[in-house]
Amino acid sequence: MTNTDVANGDARKSRTRQAIRSAFFGMVLERRYYEIKIDDIVEQAGIARSTFYEHFRSKDELLADSLEGPFSRLANLVDGSGTKQALVDILEHFWENRGMARGIFTGAIRKKVTATLAGMIQKKLAKQITDKKLPLPLIGIQLSEMMLTPIAAWLLGQGTCSAEVLADVLERSVTSTVAALKRSA
Fold it and tell me: For a 10 Å CB count at each end of the chain, is N or C smaller?
């Protein structure tokens, strides 16, 4: 196999994953998460069911994969590895797409969304907090809810402020909570 064959295979794999994600996102805009079936996704993506399973084990894994990019900016608050502008940018993206974002941050899907962000946070905290009086899964859930709750309320219009103000509040809240957790460890 030549390097070109490998590159073509990688490109094909990437296109297929993107087709699956695009089909999924289109459906998230139109229906509730629990109404979306794997058969619907593969039909919309124009792939075989077995091809879906070559890329994702489940619809939940597809959801987690789809959220990883945008949620990495939230998870980066835990270790300070992101920038304030990156956080502002993703909050503005959520606001501009608040119809879809509301569906992701509220309702029955919220539990899965929280678990996705909590898992990302746990990975970052495992490097920072070695003496865990409070188990990492609980800390991850605490911090993910600390971020997701005000974002959801903001998207639902329960309070108004700029993305910059919300980013600042999220950053200060998470930073102070992580610092307190490190002191108590």
Answer: N
